[in-house]
Design brief:
472 residues; mainly beta; Neuraminidase; 4-stranded antiparallel β-sheet; 2 helices; globular
Length: 472
């Protein structure tokens, strides 16, 4: 007699296997899509971090929320990039110098609703403030701590020098214009901590100048200058046009109207790009995403300063007034620049970009006002002023400070023979770095000076140097 093994229906086993497969797939999907921290800046364990360092957390997935705390507690304004994968946290105040900061990520979820798992912790140690500058002897980039006794450190060793540069918003690297033997220039990048340099954007046959990072650090706007033959057969690089380079995609695209000469790119805090169009005699404000543009008339040829809320540009405008300039014969001999033409001077105007409505911030005084710079919080403007009447005229521009509406204007420097320029606010708005140069001595070397934001405690910090910039 044969016995056959009795078997039940196959459907329960099939359902079980399918459920198991789905469970494994779901688990794999969870692991694959679960958000994780990809990188943190400052790097875990970093030392000598800037007191103004912003915190940046990069995630593997677009995020909805993230719960981050610091010890000492010092977290202020936060912002996400446009893909919601990078979170930037601005400290409310400077981090305490020579102390350790602890960061904790204790929760959050992605835009898919998946949670961050577990608590993570990082630390970094704060150092003193640091300045970047160009050494006038070698025309190369240097960095110096503001700690007592600190020695400058060379960042670059370009044989034909550095023209202009831009610090990446995360404070990790600098893109700079490196001169070439043929008079052109390439864009190169240097890591601030290691000093390692690499090509960023080669520019054969042209000169790439004046690079500037976008606020999110993902793009660099710059001038691309074409060569023009000279009488001696060499090439003079000029005739600039503004380009935008995106390292992630490799896209390198001109902006502005074809045939127009454009220069001096500046990013608005909200990510719009502005530049001066010499053909239009206007500042162009362009939305990089959709290409739309707004035009701000400007006959001075200078770019202005963006307000932190991206609503206003403060810029110099040429004013014509008959017999506005009265000079003695001696002053007429030593007078140089735009002030040498009687009847022309410049006032600062605050222009509402959306409407072109303008407000004169300089009043009715006969002065040459230029180079405005907003404080980071937007509470003050520092600018350069030269009096143009015969009693108070000076060969050097002095630094002044005023409120953004033009009120409370007063001089911060009173050195008639010295020109003051290249003003940079410290990231906490408490100090100012600037360049100082004897305007009466053609052989004088530039110096970098520091002072508090109200003009007190002015002191020379670096000799024979120019183009100062605070490290964020």
């Amino acid at each position: 007699m044969r016995f056959r093994r009795q078997t039940g229906p196959r459907w329960p086993r099939i359902i079980f296997l399918l459920s198991l497969v789905l469970a494994i797939a779901a688990l794999g999907g969870f692991v694959w899509l679960r958000p994780e921290v990809v990188s943190v800046s400052p790097a875990p364990g970093a030392v000598d971090v800037s007191p103004y360092a912003r915190l940046r957390f990069t995630f593997s997935q677009p995020m909805e929320t993230a719960v981050i705390t610091s010890e000492p507690e010092n977290l202020g304004e936060l912002s996400w990039n446009d893909t919601f994968t990078e979170l930037t946290l601005q400290p409310r105040n400077a981090w305490p110098r020579e102390q350790t900061v602890t960061l904790r990520l204790s929760g959050g979820r992605s835009r898919l609703g998946l949670p961050l798992l577990g608590e993570q912790m990082w630390t970094f140690t704060v150092g003193a403030e640091r300045l970047i500058y160009v050494d006038a002897a070698s025309n190369n980039l240097y960095i110096v701590s503001l700690a007592d006794g600190a020695q400058p450190r060379a960042l670059t060793a370009e044989p034909f020098g550095v023209n202009e540069y831009s610090v990446k918003p995360n404070g990790q690297s600098i893109v700079y214009s490196a001169g070439r033997e043929d008079g052109g220039a390439d864009l190169r990048q240097v890591d601030i901590e290691t000093g390692e340099t690499q090509n960023f954007l080669p520019c054969p046959g042209t000169a790439c100048r004046a690079p500037v990072f976008s606020p999110d650090g993902r793009r660099v706007a710059y001038e691309r200058q074409l060569p023009t033959p000279t009488a001696d057969g060499s090439a003079d690089f000029g005739n600039a046009r503004v380009f935008v380079f995106t390292p992630e995609s490799g896209a390198d695209e001109p902006v502005g109207e074809v045939g127009n000469q454009t220069r001096t790119p500046r990013w608005a805090p909200d990510g719009r790009l502005s530049f001066y169009d010499a053909t239009r005699q206007a500042i162009v404000v362009r939305n990089i995403t959709d290409g739309s543009a707004t035009f701000v008339p400007n006959d001075s040829g200078e770019m202005g300063a963006w307000s932190p809320d991206s609503q206003f540009i403060v810029l110099p405008q040429i004013v014509l007034q008959e017999n506005a300039l009265v000079l003695s014969p001696t002053q007429q001999i030593t007078l140089t620049g735009s002030a040498s033409v009687a009847g022309f001077y410049s006032h600062l105007q605050r222009v509402t970009v959306a409407t072109n409505a303008a407000v004169n911030l300089s009043g009715e005084t006969v002065v040459e006002d230029a180079a405005p710079v907003y404080s980071w919080r937007g509470e003050w403007l520092i600018f350069a002023r030269r009096e143009l009447n015969g009693v108070t005229w000076t060969p050097g521009r002095q630094l002044w400070r005023m409120r953004p509406d033009g009120s409370e204007a007063r001089a911060l420097t009173a050195e008639p023979l010295f020109a003051h320029s290249a003003v940079r606010w410290s990231p906490d708005d408490t100090q100012v770095a600037f360049m100082r140069l004897d305007a009466t001595d053609p052989t004088a070397q530039p110096e970098i000076w520091l002072m508090t934001a109200d003009g007190a405690n002015a002191r020379m910090w670096v000799k024979n140097a120019y183009l100062p910039e605070w490290l964020p």
